[in-house]
Structures
1.
Amino acid sequence: MQYQLLALDIDGTLRPDAQPCVPRENVAAVKAVQKAGVKVAVATGRCRGGISKALLNGLRPDYWICAAGAEVQDAAGNMLHDARMDAQQMYALVDFFEDHGCFLGFNFDDGPYGYVNYYIQREAELAMNVNSYVHDGEDQDRHLESMPFSAFGRLPQALAEQFRQKYGHLGLRFLFYGSSEGCDILTAEQDKARGLEAVCAAMGIDPAQAVAMGDGSNDCGILQRAGLGVCVGGGDPRAQQAADRVGPAAADFAVAQVCRQVWPEAFPEEA
């Protein structure tokens, strides 16, 4: 078997944006390739604590590449890679977002917390008719237990450049979701590709034996690092450029289609 690992972004890839959870078509296809011996990892900007069983709709990944590669675990919860923000990075973000009245959240071990202007995120979730998964962290004390893996926020993209001008020495990167104000905020070392490497090391395989699928700017590294990188149709232009190929749209069950194309032996009834 040429490819032994399948790494999947969740939002906009495994779960089409218009659906509340992973559709059954993708669930069935992923379970079929797992049964055929392929290991499956979710590779997401979400932290592990921000991924509910209901969201995955019955999927049970073998590995977790979370917080854009800063939090990597096996199915038993053993940490394979742990890279967190430091206090200076975190406090600079809090000060900047408070000064500009924008929403800021952090990904911790037990889930995401909205530290600044939580109500903005809550209103956005209500408008999208999705269940809230971000905890109200306005008391700003969760980091006293442990530092966050990564941050996420909502701000005009021009403000990100202002942050870089003031705090560029901290090495933080703003990866926006297309032209929207939503973004992941990552350290210079964070990348889903590093998470892929940690999983492959645990499996004893080369990243060339992995297939990765994604749609966003935070997927570029993993799409390039995997042996086969597939950007779903309509994905971020940067992700399309980084991928080996552009596949079907997420709404057309791109994950299920790619599973059938790459591992036809997992679907003998369709031969």
Note: The longest strand covers residues 103-108.
2.
Amino acid sequence: MNTLTIRDLRARPVTAPLVRPLRTASGSIEVSPLILLDVLTEEGITGQSYLFGYTPLTLKPLMSLIEQLRPELLGKAVVPVERMRQMEQRFRLLGLQGLLGMLVSTLDMAYWDALGKSANMPVVQLLGGEAKPVPAYDSYGMVDPAKDAKALEKSLAQGFRAIKIKLGDSVQRDLQMVSEVRSIIGPDIALMVDYNQSLTPDEAIRRIRTIEKYDIHWVEEPVLAEDLQGHAKVRQAVNARLQTGENWWFPRDAEQALSAGACDMMMPDLMKIGGITGWMSVAGMASAASMPVSSHIFIEASSHVLPVTPTCHWLEFMDFGANILAEPYAVVDGKVTPKGPGLGINWNEDAVTRYAMK
């Protein structure tokens, strides 16, 4: 495999419709605000990845940041570990988090995509694994069991063996939602719940105890993500297992959470943990701690890193990129299989034009 050299960066902001709008305790997501990132190389290979901005308000600042970062990368080799070291050294005083951290992580995914395309193989193979199916769970927002029963039944018909719902409304509403969803999906399907950081530790303990009888597979981010002591307090006081990690910035945050005893399981976000390079570092920590690892969004790249994660658990199926991809990833018998070459990402150019940010 020949060394690739960065010739240019191309970024395009889009606001694409969601397959299923998402309502959480921390606000609703009605559209998918994305930056489509291309790393163009002198050798004619283009690495591709996308950044999820959470709100359209981030897209213009991100575009500006990419323009400022471009001169730092032109002419450099597509070597993900070295490029990560370059960014760590360049921004030592500022730190890698926030919009900058999201961009650095997304660039890393694009580098790996380019390397996979250059070698004509999926990234999972570059990482020493094989393209095998990964069990996925269907990820919902806050649901209305009466209105969403058919959607939940469709998920089961697709082969999903796990469902996640958002909580964080009133105690009574949460309890009703869990009870009715459990009734719809039956006793053999894993049921996860996510509070999206909406509770205090004491309130989290109270609420989790009311729903534990419904066999909760995990409780996700009941308190503020950065409140590691709060997570540890909740974890010690309830029987349900705690899941966190989607808001960790790079491997150091993962190590701090593990040291604090903040969770029973982890779910790093590829866009915040340092892309594929950062993920692989955290996968080693998780393996040493015998801690199950699941993914947070980014179906495409997650399907490549989970098969080489020793404690692989679940892939989250929440599809923010489907409407701008030429060939969106699909669920088959409740599982997602990595595609190649690279990450199996190619843009649907008609959709990119249609959803371009005005």
Note: Residues 33 and 183 are 34 Å apart (CA to CA).
3.
Amino acid sequence: MEGKNKLIVHGLMKVNDKFLLIKRTEIKRGKPNSYPLYWDIPGGMVEDNELPSEALVREAKEEVNLDVSVSNIIHEDSNLDINKGIVFTRLVYLCNVLNNDISQIKLQLDEHNEYRLISELSEMGSEKIVPYLEEIFEEEKHLVKQKTR
């Protein structure tokens, strides 16, 4: 059996100097969601003939109704789903929100049912967060320190 590759993009977005997190629903389009009720950042699958940055702009509009410009990649990880025979690769970009008006945020309710703006991940307390989010916040802090040197 020949394996397949799927590319996923996510965006670490700042709105009014706070990071945007969204909470996954239990059910997504009638099926159990992956990481149900976990906090995540906006993103999704790259479609055929679509550039990753274009996919992220599209996903940001679909999931949270925000217009973004895509900056640099701050994280990459891959994993093999043996049951599906697919290697999933995730790219996480820093994004600039073009309009910092939080009243513009409208969630795609069949995928996410809540959002939160935070300064640091520690503000989430005991809430469930997707596994890669801690790495992303560490990488973002490292980037900020490099820029201030």
Note: Helices lie at 52-64, 133-147.
4.
Amino acid sequence: MLKFNVLTLGCKVNSYESEALINYLIKKGWEFSSSDNVDVVIINTCTVTSMSDQKSRQVIRNARKKNPNAIICAMGCYTQLHSEEAINIADIVIGTSNRLQVYELVNDFIYNKEKKNIVEDIFLVKCFEELKVDDLKTHTRGFVKIQEGCENYCSYCAIPYSRGKIRSRNPLFVIDEINSLVEKGTKEIIISGINTGAYGRDLTDMNLAKLVSLIMENTNLYRLRISSIELMEITDELLNTLKKYEPRVAKHFHIPAQAGCDSVLERMNRKYRVKEYIGKVDKIRSMFDDVSITSDFLSGFVGETKEEFEEAKKFIKRVAYSDMHIFPYSRRKGTKADLMDGHLDPKVQKERTTELLTLSRELKEEYERKFIGKNLEVLVENVKNGFYRGYTSNYLDVYFKSDKNYINKLVNVTLTSIENGKIYAKEVGEK
């Protein structure tokens, strides 16, 4: 029996794919272990920034160093774009398709000791690669992948080149997987994809709103959460569907903005403008009380002036996000932004990133303080430093103490304080 470990970098889709791969290999008779003493190490890589590429290479090399006798397999977005580079430091290289071939490739390597690079042209892949999570091995909440690929081609982003065209999963397979996870005790499912809101674009008479309805009507799922979704894909049909099933839908929308003024959005090739974004957020807030709006934001994009940066800050304050992921713009070869004039000094990028992070923390605490003294329901994920930790429907990260076993339980708590950026609560009781 081969013992294996999977190391995951990057996004929630990568986390899902790793989870599905773990399930598959266990069914094949392998033993999963998070230790360094394994026969096979699989690294699921990321390429969203140049730092992600660097981190991917580092993790591959460290896996070799920690376990020199193990077979090292690298897959994912970094290897899709840099397979020749990856094969120099790994034994087996797979891209963002054909992941399940790792089983045969490892067995072949055991006998032949020949390196294999099977990365194919991702734009020739036309069908969704069916992966399935039957049992959660690394998470309490379940991620279910419904969609692959992106065709937005934002000028700064390399992901469309590593993930290819939009491919949607058969809705019956989505329902089947959710039912399987619910039967085993999963209470929250996060449906995710590379461009989640584009789900169904390549299918007949199907979209994200219709999929949500199917999930609600054909499963006993307690709570559904939608992963990151682009603004232009939040349709009235989707909002009305979520409103219809409001008690079973998380009060949380993660809507990437990336910029806060029209001129930068245009250079980024984003498909909306500031007025549209604000209008959509206002509509969501009018429909869902206490809803959490979170976002991704790039600082220091090519050519960003002081005036544009000030506009961005005003935009962020106007939207009043409950949380943000803020990253300095990262230059990526092969993208349109790489060829633009006006790349900013890294020092300026760092200063602007720091300023936006400070603003984000202030808005986050302002949102969280609205709930001090209120009773909320927490889905407990784990125990950390003697505290139970879990998330509310509106994605508040809450800590509380109890002598009861509350792992994967829904617990009513009263939020009591915010200390050093953490929300603390006192137990009211299991729901």
Note: The longest strand covers residues 375-384.
